[in-house]
Automatic annotation (TrEMBL):
Family to which the UniProt record says this protein belongs: Belongs to the UPF0235 family.
InterPro entries xref list: DUF167 (IPR003746), YggU-like_sf (IPR036591)
Gene3D superfamilies found in the cross-reference section: YggU-like
Protein name: UPF0235 protein
Transmembrane residue ranges: none
Pfam family, one: DUF167
Organism annotation: Gordonia spumicola
GO CC list: cytoplasm
Length: 75
């Protein structure tokens, strides 16, 4: 299990995309807008695909209404 801090970029034409910087910070670009949790759900799906786990193994820990969110990823 690991907890990943993610900066979310909703409504992006680049998405869906996961970028990991040299310092280890993670930025996720998604096409969905930040309305009614749609972008957050999309980030969960993108992270699951990126880490090769089922969607049910990715859980939002904190930051539901923030652009910086923490997700728990269970291996």
């Amino acid at each position: 299990m690991r907890v990943v801090a993610v900066t979310v970029k909703p409504g992006s034409r680049k998405g869906p995309l996961v970028e990991v910087a040299d310092d280890g910070s993670v930025t996720v670009y998604v096409r969905e807008p930040a309305v009614e949790g749609r972008a957050t759900r999309a980030v969960g799906v993108v992270l699951a695909k990126h880490f090769g786990v089922a969607k049910s193994r990715v859980t939002l820990v904190s930051g539901a209404t923030s652009r910086v969110k923490r997700f728990r990823i269970e291996d």
